Amino acid sequence: MAIQTTENAIEVSGLHKSFGKVHALRGIDFAVPRGSVLGMLGPNGAGKTTAVRVLTTLLRPDAGRVVIEGYDVVRDAAAVRRRIGLAGQATAIQLELTGRENLEIMGRLSHMERRSVRGRAAELLERFDIADAADRPAKTYSGGMQRRLDLAASLVAQPSVLFLDEPTTGLDPYGRLGMWEIIRELVGRGTTLLLTTQYLDEADELANTIVVVDRGEVIASGTPNQLKDQVGGDLLEFTVPDRGRLDEAVRAVAGLSDATPTVETESRRVKVPVGNRGSTALVEAVRLLDAVGVDTENLALHRPSLDDVFLAVTGHAAEARSDGDRQAAPPARSSAGVAS
Amino acid sequence: MTAIAVPARARKGPGAAQMARWAVSDALVMTRRNLLVWMRVPAYIVFTVVQPVIFVLLFRYVFGGAIQAPGSGGYVNYLMPGIIGQTAAFATFATAIALAQEATKGVIDRFRAMPMARSAVLAGRLIADSIRMLIVILVIIGVGYAVGFRFQNGVAGAVGMVALAEAFGIAVCAVSAFVGLAIKDEESVQAFGLIWIFPLTFVSSAFVPIATMPGWLQAFANNQPVTLVINAMRSMALGGPHFPLNPSLWESLVWLAGILIVFIPLAVRSYRRVG
Fold first, then answer.
1. pLDDT at B242
2. Are residues A240 and A293 located together in one domain of the fold?
3. Is A242 inside a domain boundary?
4. A90 touches chain B (CB under 8 A)
5. pLDDT tens readout for residues B183-240
6. How many independent structural domains does chain B possess?
7. Nearest by CB to B110, which of A2, A79, A88?
8. How far apart are CA B221 and CA B204, in angstroms?
């Protein structure tokens, strides 16, 4: 039986799944409005892949309920499968076959007419920038191209809800940017998207809403900005090379915000929380420091990343660090990485 | 809200006839896909075609001179049904390995999240592998003819022999499909395949008359299914008093039916449990 739901394409409530003594999911709840992007963020072993497998009808939940486009994933699995697309972290394309053959086979297996399959495959090859290599075996493709082909294969039958399980894991920065561009375009066409990632900047970049998952539970959720607000907004940072003038510099910038600047005497580094007025504060700081004639180095605005959010809500750093340009904590491969 | 509206589309799932059509067409799409992959990889062709050809030449010219075979036409006639049976059994390595790869790579997951028939992955694999096996068997027969082999029992006998070899191959494929899906690790699957396929094919009547083996081994060799199948194949291919058709034919058919009845459900079950 299909339930007429609200505007949510995905509704998950009280989801539990255990494998023997391992509790992979311990009561997950979230909803994804139609046409939006949910980023599911968490370290390896957090339960992201298990959640995707339940949502895509591959695993039966022990308890709880998942409704996709009005259909229950357990009772109406066949109806759900006609409406979803899944692209996994392992590429599911057949490397010996050409890009075109891979797409056409996926289309035929989705019960599309032969003729429309052909047109759809050609269109996707063009759109995903694989057209030139369409008739070469996929094993000759670059990693980024294979991943794009994999994504294209999940889109042949035009699913209304798409699941991407770590779509950029293992790609080089160029490949990641290419994937991001394609994902943004998809969302622009109205596809509902659930994206899992260990990369904090990726969720930040692509998702309307983020749920942070750790050890089978949702430990935080909200828009990227809401999550960042939890850790206190922008931070202005600079170093004073001349230790003798450190106090003077701190006094000069003290008026920038209500919060008290923190000073790391050892490294002569000053940090001023400036809420959400980062850019203005940056200009003002330059002016104020200039007025008192203090030289500074590495004056920078640090926007809180989801790294900070993760650290704040879990007490440990996310295991896999994104290769972004943040200057936050050093790579923390702490105990969080033990779970698999 | 007193009642939940059930939209028309909810109940309007595909009917049984449509499901059956899809089951067939999905299996054929998978068959074509698997055959395309086989033809694209030179290593697969070498493993499946060249290797049995080497066996034919090796046994015909290297070992053959030392082996006294009953029946007319010398050792090559005795050998060929054995080689063909062995080829069918060996061909199933590829079944197990391909399914293990698909299970670990997430390909099967991907298919199971699609609206395709649940049976298509296994059905497409078995159909493709039996087509592949038939091609290899015909190549081997051609090579056999080049080195002196001749069918002695007419066209019907020859066709019967090929059909029994196919049936045998499909039964071993079912075992291999189960092994591949249950073990899932490519190397282990390969090693395990050697452990059960090698003794079964060599400790049989495939290459040498069982009477030349020590007594304790004869007890096993005489009663194991590979021997029964190959004896029946030999009887159909060669005829004559040395190779009686019964009881080896019906005994081997019982064996094959038993293997299929046990291992098809086991393969389906481990397919469902993949992941």
1. 85
2. yes
3. yes
4. yes
5. 888 888 888 888 888 889 999 999 999 999 999 999 999 999 999 999 999 999 998 8
6. 1
7. A88
8. 5
